[in-house]
Amino acid sequence: MTEELFDPHVMSRRMLGAHWQEGSPAQQEEFVQLFTEMLERMYLTNIASMPLATVKFEGELISGDYARVSSGIAGRRGDTSVEFRLVDHGGQWAVYDIAVEGVSLVSSYRSQFNSILRNSSFASLLERMRSREGAARVEQGP
To answer: pTM for this one?
Structure first.
């Protein structure tokens, strides 16, 4: 499901910025895979459980190969603004970032990953991601 809606390769490159080049092609692919698993676990399962009636589409802005779709999600504590940022891949739109209440998913992870990569290697980042995903799988159970 994630690969149909999102462009995890673009998201990964944007999150890691200049650090992307520090990983080998195999490490880059593993990062994309681990990030995709994390995205599915943390975000998409929560979004998928929301009733469709709670999402209100507020508008779109298209500029060349990029688009922004604004929406609001009704919740118990009021509305939450969510902006989907998309890129066109040959007629197929894919999300490359999500901003919730103005806070970008890509920017948030970029600062976390940059903090880790300033003091350790790409391989260390992958190891941390592997252990977190492994622990999350154990918590969720079969």
So the answer is: 0.79
Pair 19, 111: CB distance under 8 Å: no
Tokens of residue 133, six digits = 């995903």
Dihedral class, residue 131 (left if φ above 0, else alpha if ψ from -120 to 50, else beta): alpha
Torsion of CA 14, 19, 22, 25, to 10 degrees: -10
Q: Which residue has the tokens 């190969």?
A: 65
Asked if 68 and 86 count as a contact pair (C-beta separation under 8 A), the reply is yes
Phi, psi values for residue 92, rounded to 5°: -115, 120
Residue with tokens 């809606």: 5
Instruction: Calculate Rg over the CA atoms of the chain.
Output: 16
Average pLDDT over all residues of the chain: 86
Tell me which residue of 91, 53, 96, 99 sits closest to 73, measured CA to CA.
Answer: 53
pLDDT at 141: 59
| pLDDT tens digits for range 32-48 | 999 988 888 776 666 66
